Amino acid sequence: MNADPSELQKFADMAHRWWDPESEFRPLHEINPLRLDWIDSLCPLNGQTVLDIGCGGGLLSEGMAERGARVTGIDLGEKALGVARLHLHESGLDIDYRLVSAEALAQEQPGQFDVVTCLEMLEHVPDPASIIRACATLVKPGGHVFFSTINRNPKAYLLSVIGAEYLLRMLPKGTHDYAKFIKPSELARHCRSSGLDIAHLTGLTYNPLTQVYSLCQDTDVNYLMHARRHV
């Protein structure tokens, strides 16, 4: 199984707070509109069949469903999926949440999705290349795949680990392992070797003075990548 038990436990312990915008998941709540708008601008979600890999408590999944997508969300965290399913009673949305790995679903449903998203997940798994290959298998020829993760360099360590976890305390200590951060060049190489063409790359920055996130050209720390599967 391409999952770190300690990572699964870490998110299981926090799962009940997933939909609390003032909890450890506050950064996800604040960047979610930016992520949704970016994805929707590159591939209008209305009517698309979408797979959200590493969906957690369903924040992105619900956002895409609200925009008219038919969403399947998968995760290996049972508690997070339980929270996601429970929140559907509040939102009234129709999302298929499944406890299954990306690799297993790729064998079961190859080429079945118009769009595949895998955001804020690659830096938490032992073998990100395996996830990327699964994404390429799951998406239809010509389909869209969206990733987001954290760059690996001294600036990213300073801001994402020291700054966010220890100084600003935006995230619990130990949320990120610097060794698992992924350079854009590495992610692009994994994509190309899996049959995906890189279409767009954009950065995500946080201003601690204004406490505002924004999309920009600076990919030094957080970044998002859009790829297309070969036709």
TrEMBL record:
EC number(s) given by UniProt: 2.1.1.222, 2.1.1.64
List the pathway annotation. Answer: Cofactor biosynthesis; ubiquinone biosynthesis
Write the signal peptide boundaries.
none
Q: Name one Pfam family in it.
A: Methyltransf_23
Mind telling me which InterPro entries this protein's record contains? SAM-dependent_MTases_sf, UbiG_MeTrfase
What does the record give as the reaction this protein catalyses? a 3-demethylubiquinol + S-adenosyl-L-methionine = a ubiquinol + S-adenosyl-L-homocysteine + H(+); a 3-(all-trans-polyprenyl)benzene-1,2-diol + S-adenosyl-L-methionine = a 2-methoxy-6-(all-trans-polyprenyl)phenol + S-adenosyl-L-homocysteine + H(+)
The residues listed in the UniProt record as binding S-adenosyl-L-methionine, with positions renumbered to this chain, are R35, G54, D75, L119
EC main group: transferase
Could you tell me one molecular function GO term of this UniProt entry?
2-polyprenyl-6-hydroxyphenol methylase activity
Q: Keywords for this entry?
A: Methyltransferase, S-adenosyl-L-methionine, Transferase, Ubiquinone biosynthesis
Please name the GO terms of the biological process aspect recorded for this protein, alphabetically. Answer: methylation
The record's annotation in HAMAP family points to: UbiG (MF_00472)
Q: What does this protein do?
A: O-methyltransferase that catalyzes the 2 O-methylation steps in the ubiquinone biosynthetic pathway.
Q: What is the name attached to this protein's record?
A: Ubiquinone biosynthesis O-methyltransferase
Source organism: Denitromonas iodatirespirans
